[in-house]
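Supplementary notes for students who missed Thursday's class. We covered one full example, reproduced here. Read the sequence, then the structure, then the short commentary at the end.
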Amino acid sequence: MKNRGLRKVSAKWVPFFCLAFFLFGMLLTSSGRMWTPKQSDSRLVSRLQNEQQQLWSVSEGITTNQKSMEDKRVLAEFHKTQAAIQSLGRQVSTLKTEMAAARKVTPPDINLPSDRNHFPRKKMFIVIGINTAFSSRKRRDTVRETWMPQGEKLLQLEREKGIIIRFMIGHSAKSNSILDRAIDSEDAQHKDFLRLEHIEGYHVLSAKTKIFFTTAYAKWDADFYIKVDDDVHVNLGALATTLATHRTKPRVYMGCMKSGPVLSDRNEKYHEPEYWKFGEDGNKYFRHATGQIYAISNDLASYISTNRQILHKYANEDVSLGAWFIGLEVEHIDDHSMCCPTELDCELKAQAGNACIASFDWKCSGICESVERMKEIHEKCGEKNDTLWTASF
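Structure (token representation):
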């Protein structure tokens, strides 16, 4: 019965079934191979994407680090530049301070060759500048023959009393003119000139006064600086003794103080072109020392030297000097012994042993006909010969 239920497979089908099973196996194998690469590609893509993201992250990190490093470098350079600017600022400030101090000692626009021979400045008591002109040789000679020591006596006065006396004069408009050569020759003979970097002229006396104080301050460290005209008689002993009483005072401005009218008429001798600055017609100037002779202390000479470039010059030099001090804490000393008349007044005082510091005629703004009369005035109004040398100051 069992044998009747089973069918026998013909031998001719065996090869066919073998081939079919073989092909089916190949198909399964092939299918497995086809699915595997797909799965591998997916993993590869995923891996590549991960690596790319990592690369981007690294790249961004590097870029960020580079930017951070660049920012730090720029900041460091900024701080260095700022520090350099601050250092330069301090150096400039220091230089300004040094220049300001140097200007008080060596004014930059004063270029006298002899300046180099006087540093450091020699301490003196008084420096007297006698204002003179090219045409005033005879006036200078009468001064030398009367109240101004000469030769060895002039040097002795400097050594023992600390008093410097020089005729102050600038130059002519033409370089190395006959006028300049004449002054050079006279100076070689007497050695009593102070040459100024100034072009001579009557209408520039304010500028000459400023340059005199600047130059004198640059050369000598004096307690007082004095300007006097070459037609004024001076008693040096009386001058030195009086100044000694004011030696400890700061900012002293001494002379015969006046307050003359401001002249608006251009035909007047002392016409003031800037008269309108002093108010209405008929007004007077502020108090100032008359121009024949005046004295200023060291502080005021320093002030003129330091501020010379911005000090305004009026037509009259005595007004200019007074204007430079009018707004400062300056003691104005009105001493009328610096402007004694030559007629009788100075003679009586000299006989009484109280000789005037300076004498001149107001009507002439100096001693009238000084070349002829200076010796006469000296004999009548002069102090005793030994007064200067025996005086203690």
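Commentary. Strands lie at 122-131, 163-171, 193-199, 220-229, 233-234, 252-258, 288-297, 331-334, 358-359. The first strand starts at residue 122 and ends at 131. If anything here is unclear, bring it to office hours.
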